[in-house]
Design brief:
- It is found in: Cell membrane.
- Keywords: Cell membrane, Membrane, Transmembrane, Transmembrane helix.
- It is a multi-pass membrane protein.
- This protein has 357 residues and is mostly helical.
- The protein has one domain (19-354): Na+/H+ antiporter like fold.
- 76% of the residues lie in helices and 0% in strands.
Length: 357
């Protein structure tokens, strides 16, 4: 008992210490969130409509602040927590507003099209990267990140193919910047191409890198776009498991990139292949589909999820250094940009071929 008592007494101290380390960064993200929500409120008061949503405002404010101020060590834990854990909780809560019947109603053609788009994009992106002279493993990282879910895919694929840290860093750094540009620029496609909310939701789900970024890119367009975009994006995310397994099988046969000290391929657990928040989202969506989530609690859940998403977008903006574009190199820039343009073209073609309206 004497040995257990100190351990039990130490737990609250550990929790307090953990909370204290998160607080500075969380407060910065919350301050940006309050400012973003205030700007949106002013927009609504003056024009009756928020032309720029709080999610996008939070990203822009975060980027602007990051340009003039680099967060110190004491802020980083809280910012990282906001960008990841807060974001994951928001995604889970979003499941309460979506019925799985919507994805079933989309039919097997759309599901097959999503899978085909992912596979085609991986192959074509890899070809573009190799054509521009990128090393084999770097080309795989860019192709997987572009086709599936950006940083998460890069982080999942890197260990199984034994990628070098510098390749992972370059791929993730550029993806972070390009992902934000996609969130800000993709809604412009709606008036340019005359897309419906349903069509735009499919396009955003097929092209935007991360689930939360899909929210930021679709919320300004409409609820239907957000629901469709999230569902399509989740199908893409679920492709990560099979894709990682395939790369794990071919990893021993990949040619050497001439690197030294490179870690060998290793296996990933189930939690890495299927993130917990995806399972949570699907579970909550299933409960909603079965009528087990009371309608009265849906509005508060949506509001909480919305605020948490804005907090995470603030953290996302704080993590973007626009000057990174000058450091990742011309070939990587061309490869990632070319792969993204290809994905946009393929996605638009899929929408037309399937006759989505």
């Amino acid at each position: 008992m004497s040995a257990e008592a100190p351990a039990k007494a130490a737990r609250p101290a550990v929790l307090v210490g953990r909370s204290s380390s998160l607080l500075p960064g969380l407060l910065v993200c919350l301050a940006i969130t309050v400012a973003a929500l205030a700007v949106q409120a002013v927009e609504e008061h003056l024009t009756g409509h928020p032309y720029i949503e709080a999610l996008v405002i939070a990203i822009l404010l975060g980027i602007a602040l990051r340009t003039v101020w680099v967060p110190g060590e004491r802020f980083r834990a809280g910012i990282a927590f906001s960008a990841k854990q807060v974001l994951e909780v928001a995604v889970v809560l979003l499941g309460a507003s979506i019925s799985l019947g919507a994805i079933v109603a989309s039919g097997p053609a759309l599901l097959t099209g999503i899978v085909a788009t992912v596979l085609l994009t991986i192959g074509a992106s890899y070809g573009i990267c190799r054509g521009l002279g990128l090393p084999t493993r770097m080309a795989i990282l860019v192709a997987a990140g572009n086709a599936i879910c950006g940083n998460s895919a890069i982080a999942a694929v890197a260990p199984v193919i034994g990628a070098e840290a510098r390749d992972v860093t370059a791929a993730i750094a550029f993806t972070a910047v390009l992902g934000v540009l996609m969130v800000l620029g993709l809604p412009l496609v709606v008036p340019l191409m005359g897309l419906s909310e349903h069509q735009y939701g499919v396009l955003a789900g097929l092209t935007v890198y991360a689930v939360p970024q899909v929210l930021a890119a679709t919320v300004p367009v409409g609820l239907l776009a957000t629901q469709v975009g999230t569902l399509v994006k989740l199908v893409r995310v679920l492709m990560l498991g099979p894709v990682v397994v395939v790369f794990a099988l071919i990893a021993p046969h990949l040619p050497s990139d001439g690197a030294t000290g490179k870690a060998g391929p290793r296996r990933l657990g189930f939690a890495k292949l299927v993130p917990w928040f995806i399972l949570g989202f699907l579970a909550l969506a299933m409960l909603r589909s079965l009528g087990l989530v009371p309608e009265t609690i849906l509005p508060p859940i949506r509001r909480v999820a919305g605020v948490l998403t804005v907090v995470s977008m603030a953290a996302l903006g704080l993590g973007v250094d626009v000057r990174v574009l000058a450091r990742v190199g011309v070939r990587v820039t061309l490869a990632v940009t070319g792969s993204l343009v290809l994905l946009l073209v393929v996605s638009l073609a899929l929408i037309r071929v399937l006759g989505i309206v």
